[in-house]
Amino acid sequence: MTEEFNQRKANQQVRLLHQAIYAGFTDIEGMSIWHETRADHRDVPPADADWQPVKIGDKWSGRDDYYWLRFKVQVHASEASQTVLRLDLGRTGEGNNSGFESLLFLNGKARQAVDSNHEEVFLGPEYDGQTVDIQIMMWTGLEGGGPKKSQHYVFTTAQRGPERRTVRKAYRYLSNIVNLIPELSEDNPLRYSYIRLVKHAFKGFFWATATPAETEKNAEHALALIDDFIAKHQNQKLDFAVDAIGQTHIDVAWLWRYRHTREKARRSFATALRLMDRYPDFKFFYSTPQVHKFVEEDDPEMFKQIQARAAEGRWEPDGGTWLEPDTNLPSGEALVRQFLYGTRYFEEKFHHKQTVMWLPDVFGYSYALPQIMRGFGIQRFVTIKISWNDTNRMPHDLFMWTGLDGSRVLTQFLTTVERTEDYSQSKVWNYTYNGEISPHVVMGSYHEYKDKDKSNVLLMPYGFGDGGGGPTKEMIENLHVIDKLPGLPHAKNKTVADFFSDLEQSVKDNEETYPEWNGELYLEFHRGTYTSQAKTKRNNRKLELALRRAEILATTALVEKGTPYPKKAFDRAWEILLRNQFHDVLPGSAIGEAYEDVDKLYAEAFDLVAKIIADRTTETTGIELSNPLLGATTQAFVPEKRQGEFKTADGTAVEAKRQGAGYLLPDVTVPAFGTTALTFTPTGEAPAAMQSNANQIETPHYLVKWNAAGQLTSVFDKDNDREAIKTGGLGNVLTVYEDRPTSFSNWNIDADYPEKSRVLSAESITTYQEDAGYRVVFKYQFDQSTVTQTLILANESRRLDFKTTADWHQHELLLRTSFDLNVLTDQATYDIQFGNIQRSVARNTSWEQAKFEVVGHQWADMSQRNFGVALLNDCKYGYAATDRGLSLSLIKCGVYPDTDADQGLHEFTYSLLPHRGDFIEGQVAEEAAKLNDPVVVRQHAASGLKPLFTFANADAVQVDAIKASEDGNAVILRVHNNTPGDTRFTVKPTFDFASAEQVQLDESPVAALTAGEDETFSLILKPFEIKTVAFKRN
């Protein structure tokens, strides 16, 4: 009890010492307030605005409202003592994710944030004798997700006074010492030495009658005792080092909109710059070019200050990508562009080459990342999010991560604990990227670090994120104290680059090697982010493919016709796509208002793409078919309601079969990346399709049967003489599950979700027989929602397409489709970026059990040696596989932070594809590509362009990009091997070129390439290897 009392008494004394800092402070008078009415409020308001008097105790409120507070201050400052403003104007909410934020302007210039974490403003000797104008742009903030609520605040404190540097220093030391004592074990003599020190240090402070002068004198005495103590115990520093990195994690959109992030960044960056003025050793890391660009656009003067600090080595712009994107859902090429745009911006604006991929808060990490990173010269990776796993702990915090193709990158997991985390009592699961600096945090973070035997250097980012304004003076001063106090490690302000140099040297000195992890870094949490906000995911997929097609067309037009390449338009469209891939936007975990902005940006990008294409086509009377894929195709669907005839340019008739609202052309050849011109002559109205109520249909490939509920009971593959549906099983079972995770509504799917469900039963089933084959329309009703599916079985196709429209008005439900498959395998294969990944369908281990929902892009497949079945999709990502078969998440309608997520119209298609052999022999990827990126039909417009390349022996190859090089001097061809085996293929340019060379993903040279006969290049690709070739133009 005695020691507990001493600890509590010491905390009390520390609080009293903190209060003494402000003894003699006086209230600021003459304050006035103005409710902002301007659309652009980046600069201070006019003097003749309708300013109203305001005083301490007055209230202000609003939701997403802006107010300005102004007053004047007569400064009396010197080198020894600055004038300090102390301001408590409102409170920021829990986690700094809601509520009040503000930016203080001094004489019309943005100076620093004022918020719950930054309540003091220091006015130095450069303002001595001046009367300065203070104006503060105050934002009411939002509610932090959920129902919209007005925010209410009180003007609590507005004071001015002297710095009282000695008292502040004594407080800083004694508060850290008192915080340290509980961290020292009860059998550590240093613990009791500190207790005695605290008693003696506080003994002279008699608070009842203490004057500022007496407090100053007692503070000097306490500091002298502390100096003596440190000198006496200087050999008792711990044998590890903390490399502390000042930073702030600002979500580009989450519980706020993009425009709010622009303001958060300006506030946080201003504060970081002022901290640099005050603390010469302070360094600041920030990872996101997109946010730097926001500040560059909104405050050019501040941006120049940032550039100057970066040139000094104190502002570290690093992190690799355009912003911190989700890495589960973007395509491989989109991830390449994240790095391409990110690295180029930082090199252009800061002359800083990227050294690390910095993704602290992302919901899982693609197996493809190591290869992409190394393609940009980045070999270091940092995150903390895997600590949020709900089932398993990763075995190491420091390791070499091996990717899909065998590329390896050095990986560091952060173990920073929260200030309130009692790490001594239980294992910490959720580490933080919004770290604070205190003895408890330092010791806890070291305690949690699993690889102490490998390295004695700890990376510790610190600074409040989002609305918290980043590092504080308290954090920086605590770091200085921790560096000196016995019983704690050495702690210095460092850069991330410094840390990795220290880390690699430490591992070398310890004669250790790095552990290894080969595989994806799957986050056992936030599995619902593969499905939430379906409209955004659909737009993402469609825009990725549209940009690819437009780049191919624009590059071809550049080479063949000399049409200028629209680099500016492409840059804008790509930046929109990349911004919307932010890790709280594309995953579906932002507020509804953020998605209003997202939708507008997508519309702008699609318009840009449409204009790029329109500018490179000419008006015709016919039809142009354009094939965006590597393989030549012999099928196309042409929308056309009238009856009529199709012919080629030379007048040859083209077979056309009626299918729904158009024609299927089953035997028209469109070359890879080429075009075919057709004409259409109408002959009358199209006949109506034959209707029936049959419960089975037969095509040249399948005999398909279904029950009265609309579920498939049999899919017999006539080509392979195999039944695809498991005996006694069903296919396309639409099931609604209760989806009420215990936390993170729009992020999570809990493992027990299958326990409560309802199976949808079709209210009507209608079969249509047409020239091209069959359409079966299933209509479902569930509560307030309807689902309409058209099963399309074309005679010439091996796919069973389920074209779906849902009018959805439910909450906290998960809609899935499932197929019981007649396949015996212990693995399922999933399409991911630049390849595919196998995952177990068993549930033997906790690692397998945790993967009850996983990511797949365009397809997932279950195969045995001679037969398999794939489930394809055109805009979905959340798959599950068990020994029964495959299922796919279609709609997840959570209620936080967006209370109306996924309401309204949904359109998507998924397809069942039975096939011979495995996914390679069964051409699963090729069929998925045709579903996602079918032949483009241009009515009354044509480009007249020919393919830039011809390929041979390229069955294993996928073409990811054909584009103009960033410098405009070459044609870039990017391909990857989509199989787990080596492959050799040939490519021949159809245009004149000066030379060819293999280049990195950043388009820097690797090696010259020599053509064989007929200017043909033979290229070898290792399993899942990406290869980029630049053909220099003449």
From TrEMBL:
Biological process, per Gene Ontology: mannose metabolic process; oligosaccharide catabolic process
Top-level taxonomic group: Bacteria
Keyword tags: Glycosidase, Hydrolase, Metal-binding
Entry annotated with the keyword Metal-binding: yes
Ranges where the Glycoside hydrolase family 38 central domain occurs: 524-602
Molecular functions (GO terms): alpha-mannosidase activity; carbohydrate binding; metal ion binding
InterPro entries cross-referenced by the UniProt entry: Gal_mutarotase_sf_dom, GH38_C, Glyco_hydro/deAcase_b/a-brl, Glyco_hydro_38_C, Glyco_hydro_38_cen, Glyco_hydro_38_cen_sf, Glyco_hydro_38_N, Glyco_hydro_38_N_sf
Family of this protein: Belongs to the glycosyl hydrolase 38 family.
Matching PANTHER family: ALPHA-MANNOSIDASE 2C1 (PTHR46017)
Protein name: Glycoside hydrolase family 38 central domain-containing protein
Organism: Lacticaseibacillus camelliae DSM 22697 = JCM 13995
